[in-house]
Amino acid sequence: MSLTYQIATIISNALENEWTVKQVEQLLEKPKQTKHGDMAFPCFTLAPKMRKAPQQIALELSKKLEDSLITSVRVAGGYVNLFLHQDLVTNQVLQAITTDLQQYGSKKKEHEKIIIDFSSPNIAKPFSMGHLRSTVIGNSLANITEKNGYEAVRINHLGDWGTQFGKLIVAYKLWGNQDKILAAPIAELLKIYVHFHDMAEKDDSLNDQARAAFKSLEEGDEEALNLWNWFKDASLKEFQQIYELLGVRFDSYAGEAFYNDKMTSVVDGLKEKGLLTESNGAFVVELEDMPPSLITKKDGATLYATRDLAAAIYRQQTYQATKTFYVVGNEQTLHFKQLFLVLEKMGYEWAKQLEHVPFGMMLKDGKKMSTRKGKIILLADVIADAIHTAKHNINEKNPTLEDKEEIAKQVGIGAVIFNDLKNDRMNDIEFSLEQMLHFEGETGPYVQYTNARICSLLQKGNFKAEEFNFSPLGDETWPIIQLLEDFPRVVEKAFAYADPSQIAKFCLLLSRQFNKYYANTKILAKDETTSSKLTLAFSVSIVLKECLSLLGMPAPQKM
Ligand code: ARG
């Protein structure tokens, strides 16, 4: 039973159960300043029903709060500030973590599914920085979803359909070279694709050929399909390397092409419901307060939006998910607003459960990091750079470390992931290898290093969780205990706001508090508190490891 729940029960009882434990729990706050106590109960929302001033309520309530968990109660305005019994709470928290281990903070399993649509790169194009952000945020959100008791369904909605494949087929037939494509599929496909655009500027007939090629693809022409399949497989192989490095997996790769044979029923459905309007031969759904959603083009071809409609309907039938997160950059905000509104107009109740999870851009030296045209920054190169720099840093810090290659990989990748997740996702983020790889500061390696130090400390102390035997620790451990105690709520909040940065910021705080304590305390010095101190270190490490795992980062034992 969590501490807030216990305190809420005491308060609810004192209020003669006028307010339920749950209601009280929701009102409980953590004061910003420690001098205001460990927990605060605001009485403002109680005032109307109780027909008393908040101060009056606080005063009366404060007199009734007697429990071994509470050492003192103070009233400040409409607040009741509570000071808790540190030893009792410390013992409780350490017991809970050493019992639950990685399950600490996990919610009961709900058997409800939540879909996370993330990563979703475009075939035959380089994996962009935007796709990296979607991959990292989406993967963490899926982990957080599971920690909150739901079943996560990870879907990679591949961009593997659309007129660009017509262009690619034409380009390949004109200028393609099979061997070159086999050697470096995405780079080579991008090259002929860019060349197509250059040539089409001078010769518009190429665009007609491309449209015809896409049409034949949509109609299932064998040659076109074979080429498309080949482009797709080759690209996926490259993407797979990135996913492997990042430790990301998917339950489904059903991308846009998957819905090709499900389009007619969507368009018919819209027609039957009287939602389609013709506009110059194209069909649209008119929407209030925003541009219409384009459903079919003049030539009957469907669009990205049409395929998203089909995907949403298909997924609802297949998974009956309670919620869907679309982790896609904020430049697609309008697209998702339109999509959700069209589904609502179609009468689908579940449209309300769809949520766009947008994020900002990745910047380098203040400018957008793009993967366009000739100047492509390949993500695989970016990651390789991070690993290389990590290895350099490790060599300086710990030259005799065993297994340096593997650890450099874990640190390099951890740095890239953490750099992405430590800020509110809507912020644009700066990509600076040098910064993100520091062992101090707000970095992934800092958190990993804190954990690795604890691991070797526990080894030196020959620590065994089952031998935990509590004796009171000093005041300086209280901030650490409070953070550990708060972890289950951080997990809930990260889910409620679809925001992994809640976890990232939390583990930075926890690392900082622990390192401060560690710098001033001889944890291994033998006395009656050794077991408690080691258990504290162990508990911090359990929670840090769990944070790293929720963020999708490795946790090396040594660094
Ligand atoms: N492939 C798209 C792009 O790169 C992202 C797809 C996101 N998911 C979705 N269901 N629309 O822009």
TrEMBL record:
CDD domains: ArgRS_core. Residues 447-559 form the DALR anticodon binding domain. GO terms for molecular function: arginine-tRNA ligase activity; ATP binding. It is found in: Cytoplasm. Residues 5-84 form the Arginyl tRNA synthetase N-terminal domain. Its EC number is 6.1.1.19. SUPFAM superfamilies: Anticodon-binding domain of a subclass of class I aminoacyl-tRNA synthetases, Arginyl-tRNA synthetase (ArgRS), N-terminal 'additional' domain, Nucleotidylyl transferase. It holds the Pfam family Arg_tRNA_synt_N. A motif ('HIGH' region) lies at residues 121-131. It catalyses: tRNA(Arg) + L-arginine + ATP = L-arginyl-tRNA(Arg) + AMP + diphosphate. Coiled coil: none annotated. Monomer. Belongs to the class-I aminoacyl-tRNA synthetase family. This is Arginine--tRNA ligase. It comes from Psychrobacillus psychrotolerans. The lineage of its organism: Bacteria, Bacillati, Bacillota, Bacilli, Bacillales. The gene is argS.
